[in-house]
Each structure stands twice: as structure tokens, then as C-alpha cells.
């Protein structure tokens, strides 16, 4: 792994530090995050809900609000149809909650992934209509490219609203109300960064504004802030950039989630090993809550997860949380086996390919997205992983920086049954007999785009530090920068010439613990996840790249290093990798 470090201009850092009244170290981290002046720094460090933009700047959102008002006023029947991932589940729970508050009790539906496939399929629609034809059908986190399915609903006299953030391949019928900034950003170009639950939040914000203008007391009884726990979960899990309004949603929503009163979320947090009242970080959503919600959609029925978020009954919530936990353990075991097979297939058949499509009839289509992510990350190249479902190969793809999978798959469209998603993550379905052709074309397109040589993975170093500067005060500075995520990554620090006083301690055959001692004799504990196959030597100078985290145990927290990478200490820093150690004086003891 190639370490990369770009120092910031010292005079700029001094000015930013003085004007924001923050430490020079925090000022440099802000500069690395793209903050160049004090006003931007203030907005970034202290995002305010009062600064959220007018929801009606998003095209067609006001029309969607007016149609919802019509449904409320007329007591009309409504179906809310959401996708089966965390973004879709939280979107569905949010809109259903708000409509219930106004006396409308929608029937909510989530597609059965293994039977009906992704999104607004004909089979899922027919199941949604089994209770009768609704007056209004609202599709969340899907539907942008479902022109035939939307027309099918309209032919039966059903009005349709689509709230989505996926890119458009075909226009919807004119009478459908489409709220999608990727199709029409209007006066709010930043809205393209919102995921579905962020757009649903904008929708219900607009609904409350309109209902308050009508002096409807029910609208004044709603505090939208209380729904930000759902918005934060979907925003973090969907890997949208945690900048702008997404940062505001996540920053405030994680605090709400920490103290959430939703019975279902409390049960899910408990079974995930989280303590209510303790700080919730994006990693808790990514690796604890999110996978359990996703597991129901991948292996069962994601409507179970929606009901968990809506139901106040403690017994039901404990039982359902346990069921999701069981689904997740099953998903982990399936995923582990497929990952091993996919890696072997890659090494035996595709190691020279610029981009890979891996396929097996035995792989479960519901978990291959996670496998694609691991393969892409391990081998530093775009990867699509497919399993078989009937006559179709279905799966997911994950990309690397510089490769837009949506554009690449657009060039493969004649081979595909359906596809869609984001530049870094896509879902895809195609006839089994087309898999070989896709493998060839996909690899060729990636090669033409960026070449065969993917190069060595680059690890950006935020700051080089002496071990003596690694103090709790530094972690408190980092706390101000939270939450970290897409386009606002958690900073990686580095130190030169560290010496491990003892051999690392391997645990669970995959991970290891270690410790360092600084020049003052202070012990610094560390942990390395999934790196037991490459242990650093004791008693020899090495360079360490690490993140800093709080290790919480029995409600006590201590500073801990999380190892990212290590290398033997070089005589001189590599080109472009000089240290900034001397610029940060040691904190007083």
C-alpha cells in the first residue's frame, strides 16, 4: 500500500486556526476536508437544522405534497412501496409514520427479493393490489426506471408518486409525479447528494409546512427532529456523501438515535451489542444495525424490518430483533463461504483482468453485494458478483475511484435484463447465457477506461504525529469532525520509527492486539482487525498508519489505536510523504 501525504500551507492553517478558535491540528484536518475559510468551517463544525434548504426548491416536490394533502383530506387509501435495503426501509417507516399521524393508514409493501426481484416489479405491484386498488401509490427508493409498471398502475386508475435518487434511463408516464434530483435538480443542485430517506424527509417537511399554513393542529404537534434517527440510518447506510445537508442529517440524527424512544430500534440496538445512551457512530449503523435490517430483505421479507421500526409493542420488537439477528448470522455464514469461492475464482481465472464479473449458480443473489465489495476492495478493481435465480443471473457490483459503474453498464445494456444504482454500487440482472459476454465486455470497457494496471492502493495520511501528541485532546478534536463517511473519511494518522516492546497478541485467528510506549513511558494500546496474517515485528523500528478511536468497556472509554497499515521505517520519508510532526508542539502534561 502506497502512503500519500500532502502538507497544508502553514500560514493558511494558522489563519484558519485563529479565526475558528481551534487547534492547528484540527485546522489542518478541516483544510484536508476542503474547508478554506472560517465561515465554511463554522457551518461544517456546527451544522444547524435551521439552515436546511427550502424543500420546495426540489422540482415536483410541491406537487407531491399537494397530492398527499388530497389523500389526507379525502381519507383516501394509500400504498407505500419501499425498497428492501436500509434506505428503503427507513424511507417507508418515515412516510408511513407521518401519514398515520394525519389519519391515513397506508398499506406498506416491500418487494420479496428472491421472488419478485428488485424495485417496482409487476409481481410486487400485484401483491400490493391484493387488498384492493388504492387511490394513491407512493414508490420510495425505486420506480424511476419503471415506466411500464407505473403505466400499469395508472391504467387501473391509481395515482403514482415516485420519490427516488437513482439515475434515469427511461422517462415515466407524464401523469406520474417524480421527485428525483438526478432527473431534475431544479433550484437545489445539492439535492443530488440526498438518498431516498433524505428526499422523504424533504417531502414530509414540505407537507408539514403546507398543513401548518392551513392551521392544521396536527402539523404543529409533529417535531421533525424526532424522525432524524431514521434519516441518519438511511443516509449512512446508503453511502451517500456525508457533506452538506447529509452531514446535518447524520450529525443530528445520530444524537437522536443515541437516545431513541422507538421500541424497535431499542431492541435492535440491544441485540446488536449497543447500549442506549452511549454515542452512536456511523460504523454502528454500517456494521451493527444496517446489516441486521438488510438481512431480512436478503434472506426473508424486509417488511419485517419496517414493522420493527413502527411497532411500539416491546414483546413483538424483542422477538423481531432476535429474528433479524438470526437472519444476519445466517447471512454472515453464507457470505463467508461465497467470498472464499469468489476470491479463488478471481485468482484462478481473472487475476489479469482490469474489471471482473464473477458468477456461480450456487451463490445466493441476496448476499453477493457484500462479496462484490470485498473483492473490489481486496484486489483494487471494479467487481460484479452474480448468483443464479431461475433463468437469470442476478447480483451487485462495486467500483473503485474513477470508474462510474452506471456508465459502464450503460454500454453493456444490450446484454442486460435490468440494472441501476450509483456510480460506486449497482444492481444487475441478465440472462444466464449472457454472463460470458458480460465478463468479456465489462473487462474490456474497464481496461479501455483506466488500463490493465490498477496500481497499488493509495492510503492518504492526514497527519504525521509523534506518539507523544496522541492524546485524548486529539480525540476530542476528532469528535467535533464526526460523523465520518463518504467524501468525509475518517483521518488516518501516521508515526515514524515506533517500536513494539512485545510481540503482537493474536486473537480469534484473524486479529491482533499490540501496544506502543512513547518517549515519556506512556503505554498506548492498539488493535488490528483482520490483519493477523501480517504481524509487525517487535523490537524493530516501523512506521504505523492508524486511526484513533474510543474503546468503550463497561461505560468507561479509553484511547485506542486502530492499525490500518505498517511498514519498516525508511531512512527518509518517501517523496510527497514528509512529516508535519514538528508543526504540532507536544501538549502539556
CATH class term of the largest domain: Alpha Beta
| Largest sheet, spatial ordering of strands | 13-14-18-19-17-16-15
Beta content comes to: 15-25%
Mean pLDDT: 91
Percent helix range: 40-55%
Number of domains: 3
Protein architecture, described:
There is one protein chain. The chain is 41% helix and 18% strand. With 589 residues, the protein is an alpha/beta fold. The protein folds into three domains: 51-324, Alpha-Beta Complex (inorganic pyrophosphatase (n-terminal core)); 334-450, Diaminopimelate Epimerase, Chain A, domain 1 (Roll), CATH 3.10.310; 459-583, OB fold (Dihydrolipoamide Acetyltransferase, E2P) (Beta Barrel). The strands form four sheets. A seven-stranded mixed beta sheet has the order 13-14-18-19-17-16-15. The two termini are 35 Å apart.
Amino acid at each position: 500500500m502506497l502512503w500519500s501525504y500532502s502538507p497544508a500551507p502553514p500560514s493558511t492553517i494558522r489563519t484558519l486556526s485563529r479565526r475558528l478558535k481551534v487547534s492547528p491540528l484540527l485546522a489542518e484536518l478541516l483544510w484536508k476536508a476542503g474547508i478554506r475559510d472560517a465561515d465554511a468551517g463554522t457551518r461544517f463544525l456546527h451544522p444547524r437544522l435551521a439552515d436546511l434548504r427550502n424543500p420546495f426548491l426540489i422540482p415536483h416536490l410541491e406537487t407531491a405534497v399537494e397530492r398527499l394533502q388530497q389523500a389526507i383530506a379525502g381519507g383516501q387509501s394509500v400504498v407505500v412501496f419501499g425498497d428492501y435495503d436500509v434506505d428503503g426501509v427507513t424511507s417507508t417507516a418515515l412516510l408511513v409514520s407521518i401519514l398515520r399521524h394525519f389519519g391515513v393508514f397506508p398499506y406498506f409493501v416491500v418487494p420479496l427479493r428472491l421472488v419478485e426481484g428488485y424495485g417496482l416489479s409487476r409481481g410486487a405491484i400485484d401483491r400490493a393490489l391484493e387488498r384492493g386498488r388504492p387511490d394513491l401509490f407512493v414508490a420510495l427508493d425505486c420506480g424511476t426506471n419503471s415506466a411500464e409498471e407505473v403505466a400499469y398502475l395508472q391504467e387501473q386508475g391509481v395515482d403514482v408518486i415516485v420519490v427516488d435518487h437513482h439515475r434515469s434511463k427511461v422517462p415515466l408516464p407524464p401523469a406520474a409525479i417524480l421527485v428525483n434530483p438526478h432527473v431534475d435538480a431544479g433550484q437545489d443542485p445539492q439535492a443530488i447528494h440526498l438518498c431516498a430517506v433524505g428526499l422523504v424527509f424533504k417531502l414530509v417537511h414540505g407537507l408539514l409546512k403546507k398543513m401548518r399554513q392551513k392551521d392544521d393542529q396536527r402539523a404543529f404537534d409533529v417535531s421533525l427532529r424526532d424522525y432524524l434517527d431514521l434519516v441518519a440510518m438511511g443516509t449512512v447506510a446508503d453511502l451517500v456523501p456525508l457533506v452538506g445537508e447529509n452531514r446535518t442529517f447524520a450529525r443530528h440524527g445520530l444524537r437522536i438515535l443515541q437516545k431513541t424512544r422507538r421500541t424497535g430500534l431499542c431492541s435492535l440496538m440491544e441485540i446488536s451489542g449497543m447500549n442506549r445512551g452511549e454515542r452512536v457512530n456511523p460504523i454502528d449503523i454500517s456494521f451493527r444495525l444496517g446489516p441486521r435490517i438488510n438481512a431480512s430483505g436478503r434472506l426473508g421479507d424486509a417488511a419485517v424490518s419496517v414493522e420493527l421500526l413502527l411497532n411500539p409493542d416491546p414483546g413483538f420488537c424483542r422477538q423481531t430483533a432476535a429474528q433479524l439477528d438470526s437472519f444476519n448470522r445466517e447471512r454472515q455464514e453464507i457470505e463467508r463461504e461465497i467470498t472464499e469461492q469468489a476470491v479463488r475464482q478471481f485468482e484462478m481465472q481473472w487475476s489479469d483482468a482490469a474489471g471482473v464479473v464473477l458468477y456461480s449458480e450456487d451463490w445466493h443473489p441476496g448476499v453477493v453485494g457484500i462479496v462484490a465489495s470485498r473483492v473490489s476492495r481486496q484486489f483494487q478493481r471494479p467487481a460484479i458478483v452474480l448468483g443464479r435465480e431461475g433463468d437469470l443471473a442476478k447480483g451487485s457490483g462495486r467500483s473503485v475511484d474513477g470508474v462510474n459503474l452506471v456508465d459502464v453498464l450503460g454500454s453493456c445494456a444490450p446484454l442486460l435484463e435490468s440494472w441501476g444504482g450509483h456510480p460506486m454500487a449497482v444492481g444487475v440482472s441478465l440472462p444466464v447465457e449472457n454472463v460470458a459476454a458480460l465478463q468479456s465486455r465489462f473487462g474490456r470497457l474497464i481496461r479501455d477506461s483506466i488500463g490493465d494496471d490498477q496500481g497499488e492502493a493509495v492510503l492518504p495520511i492526514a497527519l504525521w504525529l509523534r506518539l507523544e501528541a496522541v492524546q485524548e485532546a486529539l480525540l476530542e478534536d476528532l469528535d467535533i469532525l464526526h460523523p465520518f463517511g463518504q467524501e468525509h473519511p475518517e483521518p488516518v494518522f501516521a508515526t515514524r520509527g515506533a517500536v513494539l516492546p512485545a510481540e503482537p497478541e493474536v486473537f480469534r485467528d484473524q486479529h491482533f492486539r499490540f501496544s506502543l510506549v512513547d518517549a515519556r513511558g506512556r503505554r498506548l494500546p492498539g488493535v488490528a482487525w483482520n490483519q493477523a496474517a501480517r504481524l509487525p515485528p517487535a523490537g524493530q523500528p516501523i512506521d504505523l498508519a492508524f486511526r484513533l478511536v474510543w474503546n468503550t468497556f463497561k461505560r468507561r472509554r479509553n484511547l485506542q489505536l486502530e492499525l490500518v497499515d505498517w511498514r519498516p521505517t525508511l531512512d527518509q520519508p518517501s517523496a510527497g510523504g514528509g512529516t508535519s510532526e514538528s508543526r504540532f508542539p507536544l501538549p502539556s502534561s
